[in-house]
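Design request, tokens follow.
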């Protein structure tokens, strides 16, 4: 029977070599003292012992693909000198590695292969059996159910969420981020069917509550989008505290000044640290809010300077995209896809700490 061929006969005969231990769970072999050649042979032995019996032509193609994905993975490991090969003797890793070989052998899809290899590397970096490792294992089984465009959807959602929730030190930092990730940032017009499938696959959840991306971004970075005020508006403040360093020339109007703070929370902390009274803190806080760009003004400014369009309402609302959030599996897949397409983007542990 097909199932029996896939999982192997439960009454397997064990035969151990020197410095090795056999486990009867899907003929997983554990070796101690492993080099790259041995690691490759172990991976291919596990694959051959467990993959379905196919016609000769299909079997040859499947084996070639399995060997290809093993070679790509071991190349990544070889280039990363901080990683040791001892992980190959871990039964849980061998099971995940077999899943990668099996799914790549079935499709031969290059995009799928690249992301699966990246996930395997992330899996190796996560040495302890923790939540991150469990999520990576699950993500390896989910990725074959997704198309490349659906993975791009997850990546754009992660980037947008990261962009909006991050506090940037300067406008230049925002420009650099948008310039680097613009290709995926622009992909967040989604088909409703893709969102539903991603929810079915366990990558998204629909909270039914629409996330205010523009509002959150402005809340975290309001100090970079100040329209400024005249000295006359802070005459009383200046008479009490002098020409304080907390006031700087306005970034968007050289004839005015603004607060030297990234957002309202930062402003309040600075004011209290510098001995401002509660009344004066309240006045400055209100002035900061009153002279900050609106969401619409900020969106237009960013589009003018970076050609990045923050869709505040229209396109997001049509597809209800703003009500979707990434699950832990969605984050792992999105992260691997971003690294594949655009280069390194935060360490994966950033999202799990």
């Amino acid at each position: 029977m097909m199932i029996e061929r896939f999982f192997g006969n439960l009454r397997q005969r064990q035969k151990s070599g020197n410095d090795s231990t056999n486990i009867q769970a899907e003929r997983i072999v554990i070796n101690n003292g492993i080099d790259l050649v041995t690691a490759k042979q172990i991976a291919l032995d596990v694959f051959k012992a467990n993959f379905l019996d196919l016609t000769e032509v299909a079997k040859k193609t499947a084996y070639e693909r399995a060997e290809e994905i093993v070679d790509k993975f071991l190349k990544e490991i070889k280039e990363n000198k901080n990683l040791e090969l001892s992980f190959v003797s871990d039964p849980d890793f061998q099971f995940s590695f077999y899943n990668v070989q099996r799914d790549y052998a079935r499709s031969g899809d290059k995009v799928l292969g690249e992301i699966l290899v990246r996930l395997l590397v992330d899996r190796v970096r996560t040495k302890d059996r923790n939540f991150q490792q469990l999520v990576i294992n699950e993500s390896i089984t989910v990725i074959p159910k997704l198309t490349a465009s659906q993975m791009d959807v997850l990546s754009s959602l992660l980037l947008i969420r990261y962009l909006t929730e991050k506090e940037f030190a300067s406008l230049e930092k925002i420009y650099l981020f948008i310039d680097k990730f613009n290709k995926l940032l622009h992909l967040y017009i989604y088909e409703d069917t893709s969102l539903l499938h991603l929810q079915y696959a366990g990558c998204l959840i629909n909270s039914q509550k629409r996330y205010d991306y523009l509002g959150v971004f402005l809340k975290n970075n309001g100090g970079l989008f100040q329209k400024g005020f005249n000295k006359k508006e802070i005459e009383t403040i200046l008479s009490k505290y002098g020409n304080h360093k907390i006031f700087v020339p306005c970034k968007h109007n050289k004839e005015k000044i603004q607060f030297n703070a990234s957002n309202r929370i930062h402003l309040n902390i600075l004011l209290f640290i510098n001995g401002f009274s509660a009344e004066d803190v309240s006045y400055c806080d209100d002035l900061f809010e009153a002279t900050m760009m609106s969401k619409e003004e900020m969106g237009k400014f960013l589009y003018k300077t970076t050609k990045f369009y923050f869709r505040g309402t229209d396109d997001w609302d049509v597809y209800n995209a703003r009500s979707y959030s990434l699950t832990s599996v969605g984050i792992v897949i999105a992260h691997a896809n971003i690294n594949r397409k655009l280069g390194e983007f935060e360490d994966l542990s950033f999202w799990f700490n």
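Comment from the thread starter after seeing the answer: thanks! Confidence is low (pLDDT under 50) at residues 1-32, 312-319.
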